[in-house]
Amino acid sequence: MKISREQVVQVAKLARLELDNDELDALTGQMDAILAYVDKLNELDTDGIIPTSHAVPVENAFRPDAPVPSLGTEKALSNAPAAADGCFKVPKVIE
Amino acid sequence: MNSEYEVVIGLEVHVQLTTATKIFCGCSTAFGNAPNAQTCPVCLGLPGALPVLNRQVVENAIRTGLATDCRIAPRSIFARKNYFYPDLPKGYQISQFELPICEHGHLDIPLDDGTSKRIGITRIHMEEDAGKLQHGETPATADSSFVDLNRACTPLLEIVSEPDMRSADEAITYLKKLHQMVKALQVCDGNMEQGSFRCDANVSIRPWGQAELGTRAELKNINSFRFIKQAIEYEVERQADVLESGGKVIQETRLFDSTSGTTRSMRGKEEAHDYRYFPDPDLVPLVIDADWIERVRDALPELPEAKRARFVRDYGIPAYDAGVLTQNHEVSSYFDTTVAAGADPKQASNWIMGEVQRRLNDAGSEISAAPVDPAMLAGMLKRIADKTISGKIAKTVFDEMWKSGTDADTIIEAKGLKQVTDSGAIEAIINDVIANNAPQVADYRAGKEQLLGFFVGQVMKASKGKANPAAVNDMLKKKLQE
Amino acid sequence: MSLTDLTLSELHDKLRTKELSSVEVTRAYLERIAAHNAALNIYLTERPVEALRDAEAADRRIAAGEAAPLTGIPLALKDLLVTEGIRTTCGSKLLENFIPPYNGTAVHKLRDSSAVLLGKLNMDEFGMGSSNENSAFGPCRNPWDRERVAGGSSGGSAACIAARLAAASLGTDTGGSIRQPASHCGAVGLKPTYGRVSRYGVVAYASSLDQVGPVTRTVEDSALLLQTIAGYDRADSTSIDCPVPDYRAALRNDLKGVRVGLPKEYFIDGLDPEVQRTVASAIDVLRDLGAEIVHVSLPHTDYAVACYYLIATAEASSNLARYDGVRYGRRVTGEGGLIEMYNRTRGAGFGDEVKRRIMLGTYALSSGYYDAYYLKAQKVRTLIRQDFLDVFAQVDVLATPVAPTPAFRLGEKGADPLQMYLSDIFTIPVNLAGTCGLSLPCGFAAGKLPIGLQLIGKPFGEDALLGVGHAYQQATDWHKQQAEL
Ligand SMILES: [Mg+2]
Ligand SMILES: [Zn+2]
After folding, report:
1. Does residue A9 form part of some domain?
2. Would the pTM of this model clear 0.90, i.e. be above it?
3. Which of A35, B44, B74, B361 has minimal Cβ neighbours within 10 Å of its Cβ?
4. Interface-testing mutation among A9, A10, A63, with chain B (most B C-beta atoms within 10 A)
5. Would you say residue B220 lies in a domain?
6. Partner B contacted by C120 (CB < 8 A)
7. Distance, CA C349 to ligand 1 centroid (Å)?
8. Structural domain containing residue C13
9. Phi–psi pair at B4, nearest 5 degrees
10. Could you tell me if the ipTM is greater than 0.95?
């Protein structure tokens, strides 16, 4: 087994995904199979290989520190599921 | 404080940069606008929006790195720190993790015994701030929180120290020095109430002589020097109590409550702590060559320490004065400008530390808002030096300058405050005083020499303060011996 | 010949000379959409009224003598491209009612040239899928056989070409999402080099792999459309500041002096015999046109799918964290407050495949597994990219199949996600290497199912790719065949 059901539950928690029991069962099997498959990468010796995070080499993309118009409150909130007083409204956060 | 344990403190300071725009978008960073007015697709985390790095943020990071003797990384990258929170629009914060822009620096802090101590700076990295979250307080809103993203994506530097501090006082000294420095560098306005300079403290204790560190608690987001001291001291006591009673300190984030002066464990945010940092594919590596670093170094403003040394060396003022004047960037440049306008340095220092500061304190305002500017102060000090007015009259002149914003010469002229140095005029007043105070004259002549002050006072009063005190002194002595 | 059969350059000429008006052409497309969309499920959002308004504006611009190459031409967009004021669902329930307040760069360029926007096209949710069956709004059907998939994730972008429901479209390609559906639907699909077209306003699936590209009827149309959307964009830090060549000028009629490489790893036993035969005869055509055929090797090909499913899912797990029900999109709440709102919103809002990839990617990045999975995959990516750079020292373009089989039946591969992933084996390496690939029709399997030929070019070698593709289309007429609706 590459991954246990308990681990899958843990990952779902981290990813903030509510999954029912059937989904968890199915995912455990599928993730296990996929992880077994991707294990083939270990056939390759990658010691000393520099990882690629950008396929095309590029560096130093900047913008000048000059203001551009913002959207403004109304547009910012135009898709909000809940809003009040110019703010996005969410269930109370407990710190 | 419990003395069985050694206290170990490391600090993470978040410094908000004074750029005009946010770190990854062109929205303004101005404070106090209507909620969510300063937002765009990028800082709202709208689908499809992409970040582009503000070049000025990099400049400011290099500045701060150079001022703390950091190594500026020739190549650094941005990473995503993944976690869910309503004030974090993208579900991740763009920060730096591996390969930050600055590493391996230090800051020397003065200790009470006159020596100094080197505090290591592990790293300085750039990141975006989160938005502001307000919790509903009325019955109607008690079950809700409210998100304002104006602050989201505002540029921050996170300055991480080594765990080199051994008391709350050392921590405060370090913080104050860092605070002074970022203001002098003009990378941060230092406004702690508005959150421009925020501190998290990692606090642990260990038995004296133990090499390995104790388990630490992270105290979050404390916004005044006083509270930081309180929080650390409370936390040290708490941890000592835990150990004393046979318990174990657990690694956790704790929130300081300024009303009770205590810290408490933070729920919620702690759960499922795995930030899954990885290089942000939307941003490209930042490459800084030696030329760029040198250009920033050349443009670096003078830092408080160098300034203090220069004040002593070039102006000949006492080290104490230099220390006070350089605690604040605005004050030191006020002083510099006053001297440059022709004032005597020691006089300038006395007046700035004295009259100017006192009035600012009374008004609760900053030196930049003082109604007497350096040129005006210098103008007045020159009139003392050339004996146009006495030091005593100068107080009256200064008062008037502060009230009216007019220069010293105009005031002296208008109010006829010019010092009387004409010996004939002074002699006439002295003669009057001697004639009108026969018993005191007799006493003086019988050997009660401390009465001289009384006569000087009478003369000055009669001259409405305008007589030159030195001349009065000399002449009085002569006359009384006759 | 009907109005909806005209290519972009034919349309442009007829609009410019006022032989046709944009309103006439647009109306012809709108009529076809009204007649056929219900059966094919190609458009998620239609805009008949607004499209006609676009067309009127375009006609005014033409009358003023200011026609740009795409002025007045009716186009459609994959619903992953952000459009101001026009619903953008990304094929997801979660964004069913999301109306963006801004335009992405490619969209902005099209709007700037007064192209007519017919609507937004069906797709696999957030670009995750190879069959368009992962759309929350039902699968898009293949116009050549409605019981078969259109391919994915840009299924609607390819199907609208086959069904003649738009003159051209834009899709996005993260692991083959333009080329594979183009192949299944008999369209021309181009995935440009990473950095060639701005990603600003392209809803991210896997940021280091995503790229926008044209889906068209002909290679020449592809050149025309790419010309308008390509180029450096300050708003995308990964966009590359290098000159955009004149793509139409690069079109050619023969292939003398062109070296075409055949990577042996792409001609394997598992290949469908009809795909094998069709692609082989397409290569014969290239040879007949004067190309020199060279046998080459891309030794790390077999690792590409594994590499891709770690990198793409890791990036996706982070990119899709923003769908939390706070600022936009659907919100589902429960008793448990904020955390439950997150869990339910995302649990109910995302489809199975999206959840699967978020889970896999979250795991690949999580503490203790990062090095073994994500970092390892990034290192293997270096090897795969190097394979391509090595091979392009020997040849100008590569010719390969696009997909191992023609379009499969709806539901056929639903049960086993890994089998579905493996069907992208020939397209994924191109995204990992960041280079460009073109899919063009090269024949049919029995039952009139289109088969595509893939041409792979050097980084920023779109001009060479289009040149070879155009020569091939001058010698063949596969691209002129039409699906009967
Ligand atoms: Mg931080
Ligand atoms: Zn913004």
Report:
1. yes
2. no
3. B361
4. A63
5. yes
6. no
7. 31
8. 3-259+393-480
9. -75, -15
10. yes
